[in-house]
Amino acid sequence: MPRNNKTSLVQKIASQAYVTFPNCSTSAIGDNKTFLERQAELVTLLSSIRAADLRIAPPKKLSISSSQSSAVPPVTYMHICETDVFSMGVFLLKSGASIPLHDHPGMNGMLKVLYGKVNIRCYDKLDKSAGAESDTERQFDPPLMPFQGDDVRRAVLRSSGQFSHQSGPCILSPLKDNLHEIDAVDGPAAFLDILAPPYDPDNGRDCHYYKVLQTCKKSEQSGEEEAWLLEIPQPEDFWCGGEPYPGPKVSV
Fold first, then answer.
1. How does DSSP classify residue 128?
2. 234 neighbors 64 (Cβ within 8 angstroms)
3. Integer CA distances (angstroms), 222 to 47, 121, 134, 156, in order
4. β-strand 240-242 against 75-82: which pairing, if any?
5. pLDDT, tens digit, for every residue of 203-235?
6. How many CB atoms sit inside 10 A of residue 214's CB?
7. What average pLDDT score do residues 185-203 get?
8. Is 211 exposed, middle or buried (0-12, 13-18, 19+ CB in 10 A)?
9. What are the tens digits of pLDDT across the range 15-72?
10. Are 177 and 76 in contact (CB under 8 A)?
11. What pLDDT is recorded for position 18?
12. What is d(CA 222, CA 64) in angstroms, rounded to the nearest whole number?
């Protein structure tokens, strides 16, 4: 599709995502010059997107009773488009809402805040190294149930920060910042989300949720925080509803 003044910014982002992510192997992606150049173009486009470009705005304050609030999803999703290469949509978080710690197996991702502010903490699982304390040997308080031992993994906190519409995109890859949790700060928030390839349980890309059991400093020199994560079912207080996307039509 020609990139003229009549092409919407979200269409340009979708078209760029489509050419950026095909055939990106997890092992060579960091050395792939073409990928890095295309990714940089996508980052530039994402950095320019605003809520108004998608015809969305922060919700007006409404009075909701306690009985009603329990039936309102804390997070909703606006589907924009999906192909075998990538999916794109908008997540909308109510004030005080959180998306629990979860992973993106073998996937790349980009997140750009459209309005509000979010705190994002990103983790990576650590390989089991020789001589290191095994996940099943470590003691936790309260103790784990016997059947939970295989669901514990060592990880490291790679980054933690606050993002707003003025921030650049938050980027994840199969090997870096692949697990994250997202909290709305001081009110509602929304962000544009690109995942490549999309979640697909049939191809080993199911979404797994985690709970931080314990943390400690990995080393004083690096300042990195090591954590032990327990894989858990989707938390009962988290679910995601859907709502229609009001923005420009996108085709890929």
1. -
2. no
3. 30, 17, 22, 11
4. parallel
5. 999 999 999 987 776 655 556 788 889 999 999
6. 14
7. 96
8. middle
9. 999 999 986 544 445 557 789 999 999 999 999 999 999 999 999 876 554 445 668 8
10. no
11. 96
12. 46
For residue 35, the surrounding DSSP H or E stretch is: helix 33-48
* pLDDT value of residue 153: 83
Number of Cα atoms under 13 Å in the Cβ half of residue 160: 9
Q: Residue 110 and residue 198: Cα distance in Å, rounded?
A: 12
**What is the C-alpha to C-alpha distance for residues 27 and 6, in angstroms, rounded to an integer?**
38
Calpha distance 230→179 (Å, rounded): 13
**Half-sphere exposure of residue 101: CA atoms within 13 angstroms, side-chain side:** 20
AA letter at 117: K
Token pair in block for residue 23: 């055939």
Tokens of 11: 């269409």
User: Would you state the structure tokens that stand for residue 182, as one six-digit string?
Assistant: 């997202």
The residue behind tokens 């699982």 is: 125
Q: Count Cβ atoms below 10 Å from residue 83 Cβ, excluding itself.
A: 16
- Run of H or E residues at 123: strand 108-125
Distance CA 86, CA 18 (A): 7
Task: Strands of 136-224 (E only): list them.
Answer: 152-164, 170-172, 179-196, 209-217
